[in-house]
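Exam revision sheet. Question 4 asks you to relate a sequence to its structure. Input first:
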Amino acid sequence: MNINIRGNLYDLSSPKIMGILNVTPDSFYDGGKHKSLKEILNHVEKMIEDGMDILDVGGYSSRPGANDITVDEELHRVIPIIKELKKIFPKLIISIDTFRSLVAEKSLDCGIDIINDISAGMLDDNMFNVIGNYQCPYIMMHMQGSPQNMQDNPSYENPSKEIISFLAKRVKSAREKKIIDIIIDPGFGFGKSIKHNFEILSNLEHFSMLDLPILTGFSRKSMIFKTLNTDKENALNGTSVLNTIALVKGVKILRVHDVKEAKECVLLYNKTK
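Answer key, structure tokens:
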């Protein structure tokens, strides 16, 4: 299974690690941790050393109940960082975590390789046009509601079936806009209760019916630490467990804060193939 990144085929036969870089003051786990450019670059270098394959840069906090910010503020947060990252790490594959087409477009102009959209194009009608024009890989995630209200009262009759149906429809719409390289994300924690999350995880292999690479992001989320009666700082072991389950069920990209531990999951999983 391959995706096309700027004219080069990127092999996903071995699962990849996507490291998270939030340049926001209020992200749920690492918000405000890396305040200076030097700290950011050192953190990225460490993730590369630990085995990161893709860097995901985010300037808009999508944690439950997060404050909304303007497009200008999001651009102000991410564009200077993207430019510096591309200069210092020219071979590094970088994605931008945004649901705004203007942010996606400006980021692509700065050399971003992949767009990671938590709304699957539902929050910006122009997103599919931008992706189609630039012919870049596109990660589309399922989310019920918006970051501001998604956890108010999420409701499903059959979570996995409904999310697969939603993603199938969005893929069809994306194809109509000439979007070729698509990665799907069930959206753990985005408009889902803990019970919903585990139901989706138990049926994760069924998402393969869409015949597209699957990305998952469990990293230190409440489905882990609330289930284990702990906190996000002590949710690394639980994250590794869920990452391993996801790999067994066919996931191709793990989006994580802790690259070294996720890479170990992949290395051990690959020994079973």
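Marking note for examiners. The first helix runs from residue 37 to 49.
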